[in-house]
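[step 3/7] fold_predict: job queued, chain A
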Amino acid sequence: MSQTIHVKPTHDGTYTVYRGPTALVSGLTRLQAELYQASITRQAQRPLVALTA
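[step 4/7] structure written:
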């Protein structure tokens, strides 16, 4: 099951990125948080490639 990735502001003016209920990273500016969110969203959308030896 895929979990939603979202950004929430904190009481000290920084932002935290969450995957479902789990905080992934905190203490970011809004721009940093949105860029991180976009990055991990893109990674999750990439098809997994099987490695062959």
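[step 5/7] annotate
The first strand starts at residue 5 and ends at 9.
The chain has one helix and three strands.
exit 0
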